[in-house]
Amino acid sequence: VDETKQITHLIAVDITSTKGIRLLHEGLHYL
């Protein structure tokens, strides 16, 4: 169960980080 939690956590972090980078790029375009 702990392993699955770690995997889902890593996936969630990966998704949020990619979204954050995308938001940063869009923000730079608006600047």
Description:
The chain has about 30 residues and is mostly helical. The protein has one domain. The longest helix has 29 residues.
Keywords:
31 residues; mainly alpha; 0% strand; rod-shaped
Task: Offer a quick outline of the entry.
This protein is mostly helical. 94% of the residues lie in helices and 0% in strands.
Any chance you could write out the topology, listing elements then pairs?
Elements: H1 2-30
Record field, number of beta strands: 0
Alpha plus pi helix count: 1
Mean pLDDT across the residues is 92
Overall number of domains:
1
Query: Cα distance, first to last residue?
Result: 45 Å
Binned, the helix content reads: over 70%
* Backbone CA Rg: 14 Å
Identify low-pLDDT runs: none
Tell me what portion of residues adopts beta-strand conformation: under 5%
State the secondary-structure class: mainly alpha
Series of H and E elements: H
Q: Can you tell me the overall shape?
A: rod-shaped
Main sheet characteristics: none
